[in-house]
Write a structure and sequence with these properties.
The protein is of the alpha/beta class and about 250 residues long. It has helices at about 15-25, 30-35, 40-45, 55-70, 105-115, 130-135, 155-170, 185-190, 200, 215-225, and strands spanning about 50, 50-55, 75-80, 100-105, 120-125, 145-150, 175-180, 225-230, 245-250. The strands form 2 sheets. The chain has a 7-stranded mixed sheet, with helices on both faces. It has a two-stranded antiparallel ribbon with strand order 1-2. α7 links the parallel β6 (about 145-150) and β7.
Length: about 250
């Protein structure tokens, strides 16, 4: 099980994982991370504005949104899907009892293990998120789930499969926070005078991934057995005018 995996660096040449990386993410996801300095954590995961890392104040806005959305408490164990290099995950360590980060990029997981992992409770594993959700054996430890800045890069069928697997197989997960989703109602606020096609806006391999309507996302969540509530970041967050967040809650919790 990934949660008990040691913190040794993972091999970077796993053919099966690299094949999934090619199919399930924008083509330059892993290549971009390798193209910047090993300690340029925010650049590696493109948490940038005009190519420069976002300010610490912006990171804290994200952290506060996650902590509030998840109602995070010190006893929680968080499943962080598509966690990237673990830089954002590390801000949650002192707010929960444990965190397992899953990402398809062996390189980013190596960065996470080297710089952020804290054995034995805060660990990272290189694995395809959909596969992990469908096949992980010991799901009982997790109480909260997180997918930040990545849900839009999963094909719609995979996105549905993820939500259903979280609901059906991870019965201890009471809340899931899905953050930084491109808002299809606000396309013009990002593209300005450009007019992207519906095909482009539905392409999970595009630079921005899939653009969702908030009400569309709520319906998607309902169909997977979750109650969903959409929210927007404060106005001083850089992307608040064209992105939204979703908190999923297990009915009756």
């Amino acid at each position: 099980m990934c949660y008990n995996q040691g913190a040794r660096p993972l091999p970077l040449g796993d053919p099966e994982l690299n094949d999934k990386l090619t199919r399930n993410y924008p083509a330059n996801y892993d290549a971009h991370a390798r193209s910047v300095k090993a300690d340029a954590f925010w650049k590696q995961v493109r948490r940038t504005v005009n190519g420069e890392p976002i300010a610490e104040a912006q990171i804290m806005l994200i952290v506060n949104a996650i902590v509030t959305g998840l109602s995070l408490v010190p006893t929680d164990v968080v499943l962080d899907l598509a966690c990237g290099n673990g830089a954002l995950s590390s801000y949650l360590f002192d707010k929960c009892a444990g965190l397992v980060g899953i990402d398809i990029s062996p390189y980013l997981i190596e960065i996470a293990q080297k710089n952020f992992a804290r054995s034995p409770n805060y660990r990272f594993c290189a694995e395809d998120a959909v596969s992990y959700l469908m096949h992980e054996g010991d799901t009982s430890i997790f109480t909260k789930g997180l997918i930040y800045g990545a849900f839009q890069y999963f094909a719609r069928d995979d996105a549905v499969a993820m939500l259903k697997a979280l609901k059906e197989r991870f019965s201890g997960v009471q809340k899931v926070f899905i953050g930084n989703i491109p808002d299809r109602r606000r396309v013009d606020r990002f593209f300005g005078g450009l007019n992207p096609t519906a095909t482009e806006l539905n392409d999970h391999e595009a630079r921005m991934g899939v653009w969702y309507m908030p009400e569309e996302f709520e319906a998607l969540a309902r169909a997977s057995g979750w109650h969903a509530s959409c929210s927007y970041m404060p106005a001083d967050f850089d992307a608040s005018n064209y992105r939204f967040d979703v908190t999923l809650e297990r009915p009756g919790s």
